[in-house]
Task: inverse folding
């Protein structure tokens, strides 16, 4: 199967540039795998699709302000850095622009003079290892200097706004470490979660720190050559027990987002039991994969030819997913991070 088999046409005006006034104001497309059909509804209808004993599994990762703006020293040229992950104390793997001008040994300064950086290694695909030196705790300075790492398809003249720090974050985010939001969770409000729990549903948090692997461009032509970079995940004992109990009581496992699905599938053995633990999720899910944990998937609409679209297609079938996407385009659904969602049942 070729990567080009996962393409679709999307008018640029359907790419959501800002969140709606209400988190739960989104539209929701219900996609039924059994009947190969779909229908339009609203996210506020979500609770009625649950049954008693189901488990709603959320990714509680928290986005940190991972985008930094500095100046090359001593020339003063503008530099943009996206922090990807810390590989050892004060040394980070990063995406950096302009990469071709920032080779090993290049130094970068920041506006408040509390932070300086040096490129210590040049990697492939524009990646750089950067060592930081700071007068204060690094995390505190990042919170002061950094911007919310909005995706590149959000293009506004004013750039990031103050609202993005709140709205590009789920209401249940608690574990700092993501460089992109688990966007299927952006629709939830505390009231939505309370209503779902009133249906006899267990709400279960797990963690997968959304990293470069989730949105890295696919650079191969054949699907069987594709691999998603590892991302750190954790499923604690209580979460594993709750999910396994739901399954034992004939409940369904409802995953909020592709990152939650990747965490769950990484933690589930061949016998279908979720195991507590933490580590690096290096699972690549493409059509042909047999899901062991996830029964229902809530997800946003994803970019063509992307790892996330491959995962959704593995869950629901490529032809059904692309047909549903074409319907969403015709009906004017809002796409991508701040867009609408689909529930695959």
Result:
């Amino acid at each position: 199967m070729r990567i080009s088999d996962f393409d679709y046409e999307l008018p640029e005006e359907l790419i959501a540039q800002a969140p709606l006034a209400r988190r739960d104001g989104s539209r929701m497309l219900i996609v039924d795998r059994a009947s190969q059909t779909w229908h339009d509804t609203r996210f506020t209808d979500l609770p009625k699709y649950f049954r008693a004993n189901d488990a709603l599994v959320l990714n509680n990762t928290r986005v940190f302000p991972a985008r930094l703006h500095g100046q090359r020293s001593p020339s003063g040229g503008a530099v943009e850095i996206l922090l990807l992950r810390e590989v050892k104390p004060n040394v980070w793997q990063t995406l950096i622009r302009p990469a071709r001008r920032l080779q090993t040994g290049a130094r970068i300064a920041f506006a408040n003079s509390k932070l300086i950086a040096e490129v210590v290694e040049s990697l492939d695909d524009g990646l750089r290892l950067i060592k930081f030196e700071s007068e204060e705790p690094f995390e505190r300075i990042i919170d002061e200097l950094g911007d919310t790492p909005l995706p590149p398809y959000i293009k506004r003249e004013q750039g990031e706004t103050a609202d993005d720090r709140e709205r590009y974050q789920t209401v249940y985010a608690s574990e700092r470490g993501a460089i992109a939001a688990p966007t299927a969770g952006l629709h939830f409000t505390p009231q939505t979660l309370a209503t779902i729990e009133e249906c006899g549903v267990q709400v279960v948090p797990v963690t997968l720190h959304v990293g470069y692997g989730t949105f890295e461009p696919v650079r191969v032509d054949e699907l069987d050559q594709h691999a998603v970079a590892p991302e750190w995940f954790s499923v604690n004992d209580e979460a594993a027990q709750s999910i396994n109990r739901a399954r034992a009581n004939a409940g369904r496992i409802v995953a909020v987002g592709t990152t939650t699905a990747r965490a769950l599938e990484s933690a589930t053995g061949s016998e279908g039991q979720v195991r507590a633990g933490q580590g690096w999720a290096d699972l690549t899910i493409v059509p042909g994969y047999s899901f062991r944990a996830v029964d229902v998937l809530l997800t946003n609409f994803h970019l063509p030819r992307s790892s996330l679209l491959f995962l959704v297609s593995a869950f629901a079938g490529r032809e059904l997913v692309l047909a549903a996407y074409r319907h969403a385009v015709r009906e004017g659904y809002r796409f991508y991070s701040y867009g609408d969602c689909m529930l695959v049942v």
The chain has two domains: 3-63+165-344, 67-145.
